[in-house]
Write a structure and sequence with these properties.
Layout: H1 2-36, H2 38-49, E1 50-55, E2 62-63, E3 69-81, H3 93-99, H4 104-113, E4 120-126, H5 128-135, E5 142-151, H6 159-162, H7 174-178, H8 180-183, E6 188-194, E7 200-208, E8 216-217, H9 222-238, E9 243-250, E10 256-262, H10 281-284, H11 294-304, E11 312-314, E12 319-322, E13 325-328, E14 335-337, H12 338-343, H13 347-356, H14 359-368, H15 395-402, H16 411-422, E15 426-427, E16 442-443, H17 447-458, E17 478-488, E18 491-505, E19 512-519, H18 528-531, H19 533-546, H20 562-573
Parallel strand pairs: 2-8
Antiparallel strand pairs: 1-6, 2-3, 3-4, 3-5, 6-7, 9-10, 9-19, 11-14, 12-13, 15-16, 17-18, 18-19
């Protein structure tokens, strides 16, 4: 009996001991989990369910000078995959590929290639409505990232000025590139909890808030930009030209109010983007200005004091020999008053004037007007042009420089030169941003000289000159044509031209300077007075109306009567607007 009791007590002690040991083990495990290994286990749990994700920052918008949007950013979703987690949902890949318009074979190949990685983009920037359909597939390892997509309301109309951003919202061309740091925001960071399917179910902590980029107000007037685009595109098609550019500059401030190139591109759809179309030709491409440089040479002549507007120059017999080479006019103009050298566009006349000056006088004025220098616009890729002059040039080269050969400019540079004459001899830096303060330009020539050259160019836009088609009804206009043979290796093309017109208006108080350059017109007409001048007239006419600039020539009659048209044709056929040596 005692034996049985002892055995029972012993077994009870053993069981109690086992329970005690089990309890101690549980207590130790609890202590280990909650105290000793808490940091490690918390880290492991966080690694599986807590993610630090980037908060995309909104890129600053771009507005025109009147507050109209030119570039805006809209929220979109990007789809990405963790290839290590996708294995359980491979059967859903065909449906995913179909929704995202991706070839399933390509998607499978990419997943195989990135099998050891934890991140792979499937498709960037899809619309929120499509993102909801993809989310409904409930694919394990499939995630979404909120980003922003750039949209350009004016499409190809302003493409070359604005440029565009890449898939990471970084500026690649144009003003988007020039002011990328200003426009770009600073991404934020936050911690989130994801469920087993990778869906975000709660925000844990905001590490850093996203900072939106700053908005940019540019000098462009969207209304003028549309006008210039429409007129230039029409001219390009009509004359079957290779390319064309137009620049509209505010004479008083140096602001670029419109700048258009053709052919253009659509920054909202770059699937079929052709190489070379994205560059801003008006800022990057060079051409010889031809006869449009003659007014600058005339400024040098008047500024030297050697010439007066009342002087007469003999251009007979219509050509001259310099260093054994010939310089020709299209016909023998005979004796010409000094202003007629400009509005008749005599190569012989302007050459004799240039050769009467010292090299220093000629060189100084050309440099003052910005030849061989950038305009100060800060636009990416702006060309400075070519101007190698002074001591190395021969007399023949000095003569050809006087009518725009042997140098090169951009359309923007040429517009700035004409704006300086219009601005009474004050040259301003060019700005692509809206200017809200008074601009302090540099006085490069006397106001009296600028006014005299303006009067000479006013006659260019008349029945006496080479550009009647550049006239603007009820407004006085000054300008100059240029018809330039294109350069080739070892010389110039005989039948390949660049047609140019540069001018400004109204002359009582000049507000706008415009340059039009049409490259290789091939539909028969190629003179600057018949190809480029009508574009100038159309843009300037509409600009005067839109900007509510008062007419300064209300007594002007119609210039399109049959009689005047006949005279106009005769003038165009028998006048040189930049013939080649």
């Amino acid at each position: 009996m005692n034996n049985a009791k002892q055995q029972f007590a012993f077994r009870r002690l053993i069981i109690a001991g086992l329970f005690l040991l089990a309890m101690c083990a549980l207590l130790w495990r609890a202590f280990d989990l909650h105290i000793s290994s808490q940091a490690f286990l918390q880290k492991q749990g966080d690694a599986r369910h807590i993610r630090t994700v980037e908060i995309s920052a909104h890129r600053g918008n771009i507005y025109d000078r009147n507050g109209e949007p030119l570039a805006i950013s809209t929220p979109v979703d990007s789809v990405w995959i963790n290839p290590k987690q996708i294995t359980s949902s491979l059967d859903k890949l065909p449906e995913l590929a179909k929704l995202l318009s991706i070839k399933v074979e390509l998607l499978q190949k990419r997943l195989l290639k990135n099998a050891t990685r934890e991140f792979m983009y499937v498709k960037r920037r899809i619309q929120p409505s499509l993102a909801e359909k993809v989310k409904a597939l409930a694919i394990e390892g499939l995630y979404f990232k909120r980003e922003y997509q750039r949209f350009y309301p004016t499409g190809e109309v302003s493409a070359h000025v604005l440029g565009f951003t890449n898939v990471d919202d970084k500026g690649q061309e144009g003003l988007e590139l020039a002011y990328n740091e200003f426009l770009s925001g600073k991404p934020g960071k936050k911690k989130i909890i994801r469920d087993r399917l990778g869906r975000a179910i709660d925000d844990v902590e905001r590490i850093r808030s996203a900072q939106a980029g700053q908005d940019l107000v540019v000098s462009i007037d969207k209304r003028l930009q549309y006008l210039a685009y429409r007129s230039l595109k029409t001219a390009l098609k009509k004359h079957k030209a290779k390319a064309a550019s137009v620049v509209v500059l505010d004479v008083k401030t140096g602001e670029v109010l419109a700048m258009v190139n053709q052919p253009s591109f659509n920054p909202n759809d770059r699937a079929d983007l052709q190489p070379g179309r994205t560059r801003n030709r008006a800022v990057t491409d060079l051409f010889e200005p031809g006869s449009t440089i003659k007014p600058i040479t005339m400024v040098a002549a008047l500024d030297s004091g050697k010439w007066k507007t009342s002087d007469v120059i003999n251009t007979s017999p219509g050509y001259m020999r310099v260093n054994g080479a010939s310089i020709k006019d299209v016909r023998n103009f005979g004796k010409l008053p000094l202003p007629a050298v400009i509005y008749k566009s005599s190569n012989v006349g302007i050459s004799k004037i240039a050769l009467s000056l010292s090299k220093e006088q000629q060189w100084h004025v050309y440099r003052q007007f910005g030849l061989g220098q950038t305009t100060g616009s800060g636009f990416p890729g702006e060309a400075a042009g070519y101007f190698d002059f002074y001591k190395r040039v021969t007399d023949f080269e000095r003569a050809t420089l006087s009518f725009g050969y042997g140098m090169s400019v951009t359309p923007l540079q040429l517009t700035r030169m004409y704006a300086a004459i219009a601005n009474q001899g004050v040259i301003n830096p060019v700005s692509f941003l809206k200017v809200s303060h008074e601009v302090q330009g540099e006085k490069i020539v006397a106001s009296s000289v600028a006014s005299k050259v303006t009067k000479m160019m006013e006659k260019t836009v008349s029945l006496k000159g080479t550009a009647i088609q550049a006239s603007v009804r009820n407004y006085s206009v000054a300008g100059k044509t240029g018809t330039v043979h294109k350069a080739k290796a070892g010389g110039y093309e005989d039948d390949s031209y660049q047609s140019v017109f540069a001018g400004y208006a109204p002359l009582n108080d000049p507000r706008l300077a415009i340059v039009v350059m049409v490259d290789e017109p091939s539909a028969g007409e190629y003179y600057g007075g018949t190809v480029a001048a009508p574009v100038f007239s159309n843009v300037m006419t509409n600009a005067m109306r839109l900007l509510d600039i008062a007419p300064d020539k209300l007594n002007i009659g119609k210039i399109d009567s049959n009689k005047n048209n006949q005279k106009q044709v005769s003038v165009i056929k028998n006048t040189n607007d930049g013939g080649r040596v």
